[in-house]
Amino acid sequence: MSLPFQSLTDSFAVAPQLSPEDMQAVADAGFKSVIINRPDGEGGADQPTSEAVMAAAKAAGLTIEYQPVVAGGITHEDVERFKGLLETLPGPVLAYCRTGTRCTHLFNAASHS
Predict the structure, then answer these.
(1) What pLDDT digit, counting tens, does each position of 23-43 carry?
(2) Which among 3, 50, 103, 106 has the fewest CB atoms less than 10 Å away?
(3) What residues contact 21, with CB distance under 8 A and at least 6 apart?
(4) What global pTM score does this model have?
């Protein structure tokens, strides 16, 4: 299975919505941690829950954090928490949201704060 991720640095990448079934592939691709930036329910009933993704990630040996961020509504607190996660989570880190754009904005803001 090929993961649809985009590397922003050697230790950080972003991806669109992932599912529990993707977590082993994330681990196999060499990632050590995952950050979920998409709030549960944002995409309706078809969106996998953070709980299900987190359970699958842990089973695949990944460290995972749920940091829901509203699209178009990123706050200073969101940026600071994201920055803290990047400083403390084992890398490389893969973050995902609906398309990867929100994670990219968080990363860019955290890199310049």
Answers:
(1) 999 999 999 999 999 999 999
(2) 3
(3) 56
(4) 0.96
